[in-house]
Specification:
Elements lengths: L19 H6 L4 E4 L1 H4 L14 E4 L7 H13 L3 E7 L6 H15 L3 E5 L13 H6 L8 E6 L14 H17 L3 E7 L3 H13 L6 E6 L4 H10 L6 H8 L12 H13 L5 E7 L4 H10 L12
Parallel strand pairs: 1-2, 1-8, 2-3, 3-4, 4-5, 5-6, 6-7, 7-8
Helix pairs in contact: 3-4, 8-9
Length: 308
């Protein structure tokens, strides 16, 4: 696959070097940034294919001005910005309406990720993403995504299990059907394919027909991944990292998602109707490192942003 959308100075990968199943699975991948990490990138066109969907994580305390400026920059550099709207840090409807107006007016934002947000106590009127969807303020958006947690979410189901999470996802799937707005589930990252496949199959069995964009942690130091995994509540698949940490010969080597992505890609190739349709990268070891890994494994072309 030719690197037609890039201005990279590095030598392009050898044609045919990528696993074709992985190459197909990485087609249209997305990636996540924060305003402070985006500042370290001179030009996103040097790293990512044109039209790549770039989520902008809204961490508590980040000024909306910084978020909108990052979205506008991504748009100017040929990317498709998708900012987070964390319900629990939004004070009221007026604040939400202001954010939506700024994103649309100043950055041409047409897509958004709706999520509860990782704070214990809501700052105002909203506690969950369903309340944001019900406001009607997103009815003119081209695409809306919602969060998924393959290994559970203690914020939503404090006693464990996933009853509340599944009920919420059923509600969101119905909202997508009734509103006609294209939607997908983008998940927290995990490190093992088998439970991810089982979770995705269970969604289908429950009648939750939203496509899944699976979260994958990009290449990073093992210690970095373990720290983020614990902080983000990654569940049983954390044992993959813990097992590797016991091997002194591998402790200082970067951990790459090659095995996970290869296993998921093989399953997708064998089951074309499988509901995991895209890969979403969390670049925990840096955006450039993650983008380079994706290119080296065949992820050299982004799907047009109006597609899933």
């Amino acid at each position: 696959m030719a690197l037609l959308n890039f201005r990279r100075a590095e030598t392009p990968r050898v044609a045919g070097a990528a696993n074709p199943q992985v190459e197909a699975f990485l087609d249209g991948y997305s990636i996540e940034v924060m305003p402070r990490t985006a500042e370290k990138v001179a030009d996103f066109r040097d790293l990512l294919p044109a039209n790549t969907r770039v989520y902008i994580a809204h961490i508590e305390g980040t000024p909306i001005e910084d978020m909108v400026a990052t979205a506008a920059r991504l748009r100017a550099e040929g990317m498709e910005p998708m900012p987070h709207f964390p319900a629990r840090i939004i004070k009221d409807r007026a604040t939400l309406a202001d954010w939506v107006a700024r994103y649309q007016g100043e950055a041409g934002v047409r897509q958004a990720l709706m999520l509860g947000g990782g704070v214990a106590k809501p700052h105002g009127a909203y506690d969950n993403s369903m309340q944001l969807l019900e406001t009607g303020l997103f009815d003119g958006f081209d695409r809306l995504h919602v969060a998924g947690h393959p290994e559970g979410n203690r914020d939503i189901d404090p006693q464990g299990g996933d009853r509340t999470v599944m009920e919420a996802l059923r509600w969101k799937a119905e909202f997508a059907r009734q509103s006609g707005i294209p939607m997908a589930i983008v998940t927290q990252f995990a490190f093992e394919a088998k439970p991810l496949i089982a979770w995705a199959d269970r969604l289908a069995a429950e009648g939750i027909d939203l496509p899944v964009h699976i979260g994958v942690a990009g290449p990073a130091k093992l210690q970095t991944l373990i720290k983020f995994a614990i902080a983000c509540g990654v569940g049983p698949s954390l044992k993959v990292l813990q097992k590797r940490a016991k091997d002194v010969t591998k402790l200082l080597l970067p951990f790459e998602p090659t095995e996970l992505v290869t296993d998921l890609a093989a399953h997708k190739a064998a089951h074309p109707a499988f509901n995991i349709e895209r890969v979403h990268f969390f670049p925990l070891g840096g955006i450039k490192t993650n983008a380079t890994w994706a290119i080296d494994h065949g992820g050299a072309a982004a799907r047009p942003a109006n597609q899933s």
